[in-house]
């Protein structure tokens, strides 16, 4: 027949129950992966590493 639920007028907007926060990260280029692994071995890492897959695998300035 019809929907007979009451309609809330001027109601506050709903907020999400959970708010997810992305972990902090350090973006590194593919040619810096070895350096990032060395830093991990020294425990000199404060963030997660995020590898920029669009970066060239070889440093073009060295070629």
Helix and strand run: EHE
Alpha-carbon Rg, integer: 24 Å
Unreliable stretches (pLDDT < 50, length at least 5) are none
Structure class:
alpha+beta
Strand order of the largest sheet: 1-2
Helical content (DSSP H or I, runs of 4+): 10-25%
Average of the residue pLDDT scores: 76
Could you say which overall geometry the principal axes of the C-alpha atoms support? Answer: elongated
Fraction of residues in β-strands: 15-25%
Terminal Cα span: 74 Å
Question: How many strand units?
Answer: 2
Largest sheet: 2 strands, parallel
Number of helices: 1
Written account of the structure:
The protein has 63 residues and is an alpha+beta fold. The chain is 14% helix and 16% strand. Helix 1 links the parallel strand 1 and strand 2. The longest helix has 9 residues. The radius of gyration is 24 Å and the shape is elongated. The N and C termini lie far apart (74 Å). The mean pLDDT is 76.
């Amino acid at each position: 027949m019809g929907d007979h639920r009451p309609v809330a007028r001027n109601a506050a907007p709903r907020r999400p129950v959970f708010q997810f926060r992305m972990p902090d990260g350090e973006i590194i280029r593919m040619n810096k992966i070895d350096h990032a692994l060395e830093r991990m071995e020294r425990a000199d890492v404060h963030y997660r590493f995020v590898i920029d897959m669009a970066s060239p695998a070889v440093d073009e300035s060295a070629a």
